[in-house]
Amino acid sequence: MNKLVVDLQSSAPTMALPADGAERLRKAAPDGWQVHVVQSATDSSGDGTNQVSDETLAEVADAQVYFGYGLSAGVVAAAPQLKWAHSASAGVGKSITPELLSAGLLFTNSAGVYGEAMADSALAGVMHFVRGMDFAVRLQAESVWDKQAFQTPEWPLREVADLRVLVIGAGGIGSAVARRFTALGATCTGIRRRPELGVPDGFRYVYGPDRIDEQLEAADLVVLAAPLTALSRGVMDARRLALLPHGAIVVNVARGALIEEDALLESLATGRLRGVYLDVFRREPLPATHPLWRDPRVLITPHVSGVSPARHWGRALSLFEDNWRRFVAGEPLRNVVDPSAGY
């Protein structure tokens, strides 16, 4: 008898596997498989893997497949029969451990599952600044009727169709971002590690990392949508932020470490940037004393850009079930993680 252990009882309600999702997995089980759904709480924040229950460690001892938020070294060590692990998180940085590398497991992630919601959040964050919603929120809080605030020559209102958009990370999330902005008339350029793979939907152009600097000089909007790797860490530093034209907008819905936060604060202080939307940070939760909270040109959400209760589990379970079928049939799996690339 083969065994699947499902470890998705997140302490965050919207990220906890619902009862009908657990039943769906039981019904999808191929002949000769049993499904154990862990009832103990786990941690879905970031890459996951931060909290492993005693129940999980006991159940994976004879499991062939594990489905959780990330893959901790503890789970790998406790599961000598494990052949494949699937993460319900898209990020995998914390899961790429010496234990994983030495175990030789198949490891897949949920890249693409969160892309549509994250792209919606990126669009909303940009519209907040492009159409002056930041002015509106402040004026409403003060009960002030002031049309002049929306007509300043320094920060004129713009239409999305006028934006030159640079998306760093042209994978599933980046393509979802580009499709939205292209549909509204913007010109979208992507940066990806392997541009020879082609131009994904939504982009007019795609270049390699060696072209970032020249593309930043022409970008009204930069969206960070890349996985965190050695290549992408700190990709937006002080030098690159200084390349942006006056009035540019910066969005980060990927990982906090992609941008140098001190350099970002300095760039805001110079008056170069129109606005910054951040959903992720180097340290989470963002400390209450951090100056990013107090800058009126910064819009902050607490790492929730991918939240989509109505649609998330349909996408997440469909991906896993397809891979489960492939695994049983001996076919190639989708979203296989390349540890050397970091995603």
Percent of residues in helices comes to 25-40%
Described by the principal axes of the CA atoms, the overall outline is elongated
Give the DSSP E fraction (strand runs of 2 or more residues): 15-25%
User: How many structurally independent domains?
Assistant: 2
- Identify the CATH architecture of the largest domain: 3-Layer(aba) Sandwich
CATH superfamily of the largest domain: NAD(P)-binding Rossmann-like Domain
Note the main sheet.
Answer: 7 strands, parallel
How do the SSEs run, as a string of H and E? Answer: EHEHEHEHEHHEHEEHEHEHEEH
CATH topology of the largest domain: Rossmann fold
Radius of gyration: 22 Å
Secondary structure: number of strands: 12
Q: Which regions have little confidence, pLDDT < 50, spanning 5+ residues? A: none
How many H/I helices?
11
Residue-averaged pLDDT: 97
How would you portray this structure in words?
The model has no long low-confidence stretch (mean pLDDT 97). The protein contains 11 helices and 12 strands. 29% of the residues lie in helices and 15% in strands. Strand 3, helix 3 (73-78) and strand 4 (84-87) form a beta-alpha-beta unit. It folds into 2 domains: 2-113 and 308-329, 3-Layer(aba) Sandwich (Rossmann fold); 115-300, 3-Layer(aba) Sandwich (Rossmann fold). It is an alpha/beta fold. It is elongated and about 70 Å long. Helix 5 crosses helix 7 (172-183). The chain has a 7-stranded parallel sheet.
